[in-house]
Design goal:
Elements lengths: L4 H5 L11 H4 L12 H8 L9 H4 L7 H9 L3 H8 L6 H7 L23 H14 L15 E5 L3 H11 L4 E5 L8 H4 L8 H14 L2 E3 L10 H6 L5 E4 L5 E2 L12 E3 H9 L18 E5 L3 H13 L3 E6 L10 H9 L3 E4 L1 E8 L5 E14 L5 E14 L2 E4 L3 E2 L3 H5 L24 E3 L2 H4 L4 H24 L8
Parallel strand pairs: 1-2, 1-4, 2-3, 4-15, 6-13, 7-8, 7-13, 8-9
Antiparallel strand pairs: 5-14, 10-11, 11-12
Helix pairs in contact: 3-5, 5-6, 5-8, 6-8, 7-8, 9-18, 13-14
Amino acid sequence: MGLTAKERMAIERNRMGEQPPDLRNRNFEEVPYGYTPEEAVNEAKRCLNCKKRTCVSGCPVEVPIPEFIALIAEEKFVEAARVIKTKNVLPAVCGRVCPQETQCEGQCIRGKKDNTQAVAIGNLERFVADYERENNLIELSEVPKKNGFKVAVIGSGPSGLTVAGDLIKLGYEVTIYEAFHRGGGVLVYGIPEFRLPKRIVESEIKALENLGVTIHYNSVIGRLYKIDELFKGLGFDAVYIGVGAGLPIFLDIPGMNLNGVFSANEYLTRSNLMKSYLFPKYQTPMIIGKKVAVLGGGNVAMDSARTAIRLGAEKTTIVYRRSMEQMPARAAEVHHAKEEKIEFRLLSNPVEIYGNKDGWVTGMKCQNYQLGEPDESGRQRPVPVEDSFFEFDCDQVLVSIGGQANPLITKTTPDIKINKWGYIVTDDWGRTSRQFVYSGGDIVTGAATVISAMGAGRRAAKAIHEDLMKESNETTGDNGK
């Protein structure tokens, strides 16, 4: 006989063990340890299996959450992982980096009054994905007979991998073109090892290759091939653009060109993808700041600040023009940053970066801010306080105030419509203004979450399949290739 709702409600949320702050802030090993099987089963028993599945509607890829949690409660861990994979090709990744507190867990009935008591859906997803992988129990999906259509996917980030995974299972021949020498996109160049070990991303990509997905690395589309050449020269029937929005944005203030000022994108790419944190094993040059200032309040800012501490910074300060409550970073990342003794200078914004006669950063001048009326985002607008300046010393500045679209592909394919910010314009299913060209993720929406990019990839895969099947059933003619 199963537990009653009252008995389930009496079970407290199982906290995940993690490295102590004073130990982890000097190493790059993953911070949380993960659940034990006993902890996972106990947490799964907290699920009320509600009739109204609000947790599922809160998931951008609509993972069948109550079903996989029920299997965990029965200790059927591998079966639970396979249920997740019917909707999510990257469960070990999403279990670690998705903002569950605002998505599935944010919609959990148990957490409506107190979000800290929501069922730990992300922790459970991570557990079963890790269990399957670590016990070598990953089962290859049966791939249907090829349907004769070829699809090119530009970028191997979360949306590109999702498109590839969905289409390969439908019988398409799928080829991914990745600009870097390793796959994963932002998962490998943007997210540090202590949040997402790269062996996990490699495992997920290997699973797609085992299904038949081909990946060409060091392949910059727009340079190596243009979109037209993918169609006419290489014979692809559809193209999906999932290149993200990694072009950094800098502030227009004095001193931004000084030595020691980095975009967070470059800083994290050097550390993560190029493995400067393992120097001298990997010969990647990296300037190590002792007093580091990080500009911004998102997850990338937290990743940059926490990386700087681990690389040897004596002090790291986050400068953010809004309040703590308005900070867009995940609550867990802010919490970890505070535990690691990262300083926060809130409601402040830099107006000048100081340097010495040799052109190296020596300090920063900031202005205090206060919150005014709400802006278009719904948050209170930060307003500068007149004549309220302060200065502090720093020898390195990491700029993490957002990214923008790289124009390489859109400039070489002028018939793809873009908006005033340079992002590709699509319909709700990823269709662009160019027939049989689709797009999704950050190159369409601007910087967003891993799971939202995967949701966009899933919708685009459905549109590609629908459009090509429709094309194959009609009289053969010019299909835009």
